[in-house]
Amino acid sequence: MNIGNDASVRTATAAAQSSNATEVQMAVLKKALNSQAASVQPLLDSLPQQPKLATEGAVGTLVNIHV
Asked: pTM (2 decimals)?
């Protein structure tokens, strides 16, 4: 009996290969995302800090709403 031609064997083999390929693709994607995150972090760190919001005084602490 030749099991190489059996449809269920072919299906199981294809599923195992597909699963392995998916795992490899996910590993490559994760490495690419980690690499991009590492290269972007210095750019984000170099951005100027936003000024603090006013907490006292008349300018920048009151909201005028006209209906």
From this structure: 0.48
